[in-house]
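Allow me, if you will, to draw on your knowledge of protein folds for a short while. The matter concerns a single protein, recorded as an amino acid sequence and a row of backbone structure tokens. Kindly check, if you would, that the fold set down in the tokens agrees with what the sequence suggests. You will find the record immediately after this paragraph.
***
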Amino acid sequence: MAKDLFNRYIWLVDTIYQADGITFEEINEKWTRNSMSGGEDIPLKTFHNHRKAIEEIFDINIICDKKNGYRYYIENVDDMQKGGVRTWLLNTFAVNNLINESHHLKRRIIFEQIPSGQKFLTPVIVAMRDGNTLEVTYKSFWKQDEYTTEVEPYFVKVFRQRWYMVARNVYKDAIRIYALDRIRDLRQTEKVFTIPQDFSAEDYFYNAFGIIIEDGCPPETIELKVYGMQREYFRTLPLHHSQTEIETKEEYSVFRYRMSATYDFMQEILSHGCDVEVLAPGHLRDDIRKHAEVIAGRS
């Protein structure tokens, strides 16, 4: 029942969002054509209850424009278009609803699997919502033995098909990043915590490429020369929000960044092979050259 109700909320948000102004009668007409309706109308009272629930769950406000024929629209549509969890949820469930209504398409749409989110993502989010700490048993790739610690879950992030939890380690009084696929056990405690008001998830990773934050690795100006068609991939899917194209030639383009040259960023550069050349800074160019020499020596 809860799942069906949740899907109704998603359908309603998606319908109003796509319409960019729609009357209740038009909403009801679309609803009756949807398989979830069973061919029955949506009562006006139910519609308003859904509006209230959507505001509480997603922080999405559905407003009635009485001066324009009592048409409904999404008030904070600009925030949704900027991305973030609301857009991700909306797109995910909207596509899911479409697939469920078109069973013959199920084998023609392939998604990336994210195994790490299957077991621990939900309890982590619940603890974030409730403001309770977590007792986590963790096994790092870099340590032989697993250990148990208490953390305050601040936020979660997905990167390269893995979910990560950014949390304050209570015992070390420091922010740490935990991959959910390396958690062995987890339980929510009764202890309450409050996330600092000045803490921002976006700011925390502002200078990072992916999930790694390294001490002694401050943001710096990085320039990459990208050859041939590979630059089209950089243009359509920038490596970082600071990316700018500062030089364009027939054979190549030069992209500039302001970010930290972390280990995962170096791995990204190496993955493009000879199509990407580091121009600056010199230490990053040298590090990439050394990695390339090791690779060449093993072949």
About this structure: The two ends are 57 Å apart (CA to CA). The chain has a mean pLDDT of 87.
